[in-house]
Amino acid sequence: MLGRPAYRSLAQIISGAIAAGELRPGDRLPTHRDLAFQLGVSVQTVSRAYDALIRADVISGEVGRGTFVKPMQPEGRPPPYQRIDRDEPIIDCSMLTPVIGELHERAFAETLAKMAADMPAEALYSFRPRLTMERHAERGAEWLANCGLRTRPDLVLPTNGNTPAMTIALMTAANPGDLVVTEAKSHHTLKAQTRYLGLRIVGLRCDDEGIVPEAFDDACVRKSARILYVLPAGNGPRACVMGPERRAALVGIARRHDVAIIENDAWGPLEPGRPSPIAALAPERTFYFTGFTKSLLPGLRIAYLVVPEDQFTSALGRHMVTNWMATGMVAEVASRWIADGTADNLLQWQRRVLARRNRLAVTLLAGLPVRGGSYGLHRWLRLPEGWQEQAFVNAARQRGVAVAPGSAFDIAMDQPPELGVRICLGAPSEEALEEGLRTIARLTRNRPEPDFLTI
Fold first, then answer.
1. Residue 137 · residue 158 · CB < 8 Å
2. Among 31, 32, 196, 370, fewest CB within 10 Å belongs to which?
């Protein structure tokens, strides 16, 4: 039974069937005339419904062939951000990025000027990664202490950002065919990376602290899991922070079943007073990485991968065949910033501005099912009953705000995933962020009738 207006109701029914998998990519829809006859409505009603779905990029009409359900985004999931043209008047709360100000430009310019006068020769000319990176690894170890992890410099591998660190960890810890287990919603590139490396991946049941220990233990016993990939410090899409007891429980299970752990701590020390990294509890089996792109400056693509002692040679070999070494000049900037205090000054500034933005989010989203830390880069909004993720994302976009759908982070599991959206706080100005959060709050509290289905 169609509601009113009939074309909108029909479009919602078709959209819901696609979201539920009842209609699959490539399926052909009935002709306008046939569907109108089946439903007892006018051809114009069907045409308006199809037009609305075409504008929403859900279906496509092909002259002479018919109307078809469009393929999903690559890897079966939409990207965790929305591509926004430079001149498009959209408040971007979809891109996970730190807050940037003029002080970052000044700091970068001053450091480059100094480097022009005294750039170490090995950073420019050396082809020997360990020789070149020895000093950079020492500085990296100093930064890791700020993250709660004290380790030896000879176990630190500088990489060109968090993604290369993540790749090297997977290549070192796993063999083709091994099973990686992770949160039900995890890093948006993990699913593709595991597939490219010939690995299997399964999402595990989670609660407000992340992976439930019983689910991890069951995956080890019944599915022979070999690698646990975790984002325990609030940087996962659902913004869950594992407490010390939960971390210890997962480590105990990993030791009992001899499972390697990969710990993604991309934000590093943004959140003060946080629990110690899992790598501090289980250094013998944990590959830990953190970098500067999320905590200090997006363009400073440097990360530090800490490797278990008996795996370091293997990790170094895999790094060399994929990247050879971290880019010397970028690593030199990061090392100087750690040494002269610039990195710490930028960290303290980032904490202050993120604290203000998170307080603003707490105030404007009060009463809604939202989760996030006091200094985090995003908040997770669990959608109220009746809302579908893509419908909410599209409706927010129609109102001038871009958010990331939770489905972009889904990892296959036995249970339906939690529906929600990630709201990033770093990209817009504070004024724009306030406007965007007010818009999101109003939309969440309203009855789900996405504007993208209207003409």
1. yes
2. 196
Rounded CA separation 298/117 (Å): 25
Cα–Cα nearest to 142, from 403, 280, 343:
343
Q: How far is Cα 392 from Cα 443, in angstroms, rounded to an integer?
A: 8
**Predicted local distance difference test score (pLDDT) of residue 173:** 96
User: Can you tell me the distance from the alpha carbon of 51 to that of 180, in angstroms, rounded to the nearest whole number?
Assistant: 42
The answer to whether residue 129 scores a pLDDT higher than 60 is no
| Spatial separation of the C-alpha atoms in residues 329 and 340, rounded to whole Å | 16
Instruction: Say whether pLDDT at 177 is over 90.
Output: yes
Q: pLDDT of 193-241, one tens digit each?
A: 998 999 999 999 999 999 999 999 999 999 999 999 999 999 999 999 9
Predicted TM-score (pTM) of this structure: 0.81
Query: For position 301, what pLDDT does the model report?
Result: 94
- Cα 337 from Cα 345, distance rounded (Å): 9
Alpha-carbon distance of 13 to 334, in angstroms, equals: 53
Q: How confident is the model at residue 454 (pLDDT cuts 50, 70, 90)?
A: very low
Residue tagged 């818009």 (tokens)? 439
Phi, psi of 95 (to 5 degrees): -95, 125
Distance CA 21, CA 211 (A): 27
